[in-house]
Design goal:
This protein has one helix at about 5-30, and strands at about 40-45, 50-55, 60-70, 80-85, 90-95, 100, 105-120, 120-130, 135-144. It is of the alpha+beta class and about 140 residues long. The strands form two sheets. Strands 4, 5, 6, 8 and 9 form a five-stranded antiparallel β-sheet that branches. It has a four-stranded antiparallel β-sheet with strand order 1-2-3-7, with no helix packed on it. The protein is globular and about 80 Å long. The N and C termini lie far apart (about 65 Å).
Length: about 140
C-alpha cells in the first residue's frame, strides 16, 4: 500500500533533500589532498635584491623553484643568490650560489630544484654582494 504525501510534506522533503545534497557537494568539493600554495620569499640589501618563488607546500624531499636576483648599484661589485632550506631537524642547508656579473640594473633568472632526503620543511633566499670572493653584505628571508 503506497503512502501519499501532502503538498506541504513533499515541499519539506524536497527542501531537506536539497540541503543534504548541497552539503554533500560542498564536502566533496573541499575534500582531498592539500593544494599547493604559491609563495615568494624576497629580500634586499645594499646593492642587491632577489626573490625565490615556489608552489611547494608542506614537508617534502624536493622543491622546484624560480629565482630572480638583480644588481642594484653601479659599484663594480657582483651579486649572488641562493636557495636556503631547513630539514626535519631544523638543520640549515645553503645551496650553491648563482652569480650575476652583468652590472647595474641586470637580473639573472634561475629555474631549478633541490632535493634533500632529510626533507625540506622551510625555504627561502639569501642575496649577497661580493667583491671577488670577499663577502660585503647580504640578506636572507624565509618561508616557514
Amino acid at each position: 500500500m503506497a503512502m501519499s504525501l501532502t503538498k506541504s510534506q513533499r515541499r519539506k522533503t524536497l527542501q531537506l533533500t536539497g540541503t543534504a545534497l548541497g552539503a554533500l557537494v560542498l564536502t566533496v568539493a573541499t575534500s582531498g589532498s592539500a593544494q599547493a600554495n604559491p609563495m615568494q620569499a624576497e629580500c634586499s640589501t645594499t646593492g642587491a635584491y632577489g626573490y625565490v618563488y615556489s608552489d611547494w607546500y608542506g614537508s617534502d624531499t624536493r622543491i622546484d623553484f624560480s629565482m630572480t636576483f638583480t644588481d642594484m648599484l653601479a659599484d663594480g661589485h657582483h651579486v649572488r643568490a641562493r636557495l636556503v632550506t631547513t630539514d626535519v631537524n631544523n638543520v640549515r642547508k645553503n645551496w650553491p650560489w648563482h652569480y650575476n656579473y652583468g652590472g647595474n640594473n641586470t637580473s639573472v633568472d634561475v629555474n631549478s630544484y633541490a632535493t634533500n632526503s632529510s626533507g625540506i620543511f622551510n625555504w627561502g633566499i639569501q642575496v649577497a654582494r661580493y667583491e671577488g670572493d670577499t663577502y660585503l653584505n647580504s640578506c636572507t628571508n624565509w618561508i616557514v
